[in-house]
Amino acid sequence: MSLARMEVYEEEFRHLESSLRRLRLDANAKAVFLIDRNGQHIAAAGDTDQFDSTSLASLTAGNVAATDGLAKLIGEREFSVLFHEGQRDHIHISIVARRAILLVIFDERSSLGLVRLRVKRASSEMDRVFEQMDQKAEMGFQGEAEPSPFSEITDEDIDALFSE
Known about the structure:
Blueprint: H1 10-26, E1 31-36, E2 41-46, H2 53-73, E3 81-85, E4 90-96, E5 100-106, H3 112-141, H4 155-163
Antiparallel strand pairs: 1-2, 1-5, 3-4, 4-5
Helix pairs in contact: 1-3
């Protein structure tokens, strides 16, 4: 998969944020982050202020990349779910639509089983949002984007503007 830059449109961004907020509540997580495979923070929900989101996003993408390397070494395409258990906090990492990383930070108020269940539903929602983004991007490449506001200006308009 190419690590090309991802464009997130406003409407789809709102849908992604809504999915993240619902996931955080349903999984009883501390925070949820959506990160692109390049390590760029896309969106988040929950108690995110206590985390350095830039470092977290970068390190999470690195973790996924390293794990992808391990998967290939043993003949797997990828490991789509990762779990790190700490004394207080735990991290669940999953791949969404083969292009983004969903990071859920949770503690003893939740369980791995609950997080996995809720992540599965949220991932399905986000897959649909990413499909919508693909369709919009494809339409833009076919020339169906809005016309330039300058397309109606003629040479005569420009001459008239500067001749006065």
